[in-house]
Amino acid sequence: MTENKRITILGVPVDLIDKEAAMARFEELFPQPGVTAVYTPNSEIVENASHDPALKELINSAELIIPDGIGLVYASRFVGHPLKERVTGIDFLESIIAYLADHGKSIYFFGSKPGVAEKAAEKIREKYPALRVAGTHDGYFKPEEEPAIVEQINDSGADFLCVALGAPKQEKFIYDHKEELKVHGAIGVGGSLDVWSGDLKRAPEFYQKHGLEWLYRFLQQPARIGRVMKLPVFMLKVMFQGRSQEGLS
User: Does residue 135 lie within any of the structural domains?
Assistant: First the structure.
């Protein structure tokens, strides 16, 4: 089995990987015992993790840490270990879904507002008729309800779990229940279910190709200004710390 090469950006690990290599690695890991955890940090999450040891440890625990954000690509060049491309969580998840459909495997959609996961599942099945959807659950629950949700996921017999609770809540759910879950893989996917259901419009291709999806989201939701401003803070920190503090493993 091939080994992951990981770089650190602000001390936070990210796999030095492109989409093709990430999918090849996933296909190696998925049949193995245990849960293959896939996290998709962007610049904001890396910035948060840089001063949150618990979040950093959580990210480091994943079998695959996908660079979902153009800021990570720019930062990787600055620290001397350039990423070939960003690998967006929604696109990587769709590659996983295609793999699951081709191999007769099933998926469980968990997260977002009531009804959204069901709508997303319907849209995805239109594109991948062979995909088996084991079940769905919305993202509105109390902490004490988590064991029952884990039981529902396990009882569904799902092979793969898609968690759309927003970062870092989705990653924490996977991390906290990794030993209990019977799925073979799980990913945190943010707003992917909202996009697939049609409740949220994804950025046009121009924005996607130029790494400007964050700008499109801001134009749609100006209240995100606080989150958007973390990108320049992130880049300034990378520039200030320089290459000497970053590494390759």
Answer: yes
Determine, yes or no, domain membership for 228: no
Q: For the whole model, what pTM was predicted?
A: 0.91
Number of domains in the chain: 1
For residue 211 the two structure tokens come to: 């790494």
Is 114 among the domain residues? yes
d(CA 66, CA 51): 20
CATH of the domain at 118: 3.40.50.10700
E-strand ranges in the chain read: 6-9, 12-15, 36-39, 64-65, 106-111, 132-137, 160-164, 185-188
What is the spatial distance between Cα 80 and Cα 135, in angstroms, rounded to a whole number? 44
Low-confidence ranges of the chain (pLDDT < 50): 244
* pLDDT tens per residue, range 140-175: 999 999 999 999 999 999 999 999 999 999 999 999
The answer to whether the beta carbons of residues 234 and 76 sit under 8 Å apart is no
Residue 223 included in any domain: no
The residue segments making up the domain with residue 176 are 8-200
User: For 221-246, how does the pLDDT look when each residue is reduced to its tens digit (9 = 90+)?
Assistant: 666 666 666 677 788 889 887 554 55
DSSP string for 15-27: E---HHHHHHHHH
pLDDT of 1: 62
Burial group, residue 198, by CB count within 10 angstroms (0-12, 13-18, 19+): exposed
Closest listed residue to residue 94, CA positions, set 2, 150, 19, 37: 19
- How many other C-beta atoms are found inside a 10 Å radius of the C-beta of residue 48? 19
- How are strands ordered across the β-sheet holding 64-65? 64-65, 36-39, 185-188, 160-164, 106-111, 132-137
Per DSSP, what are the bridge partners of residue 152?
Answer: none
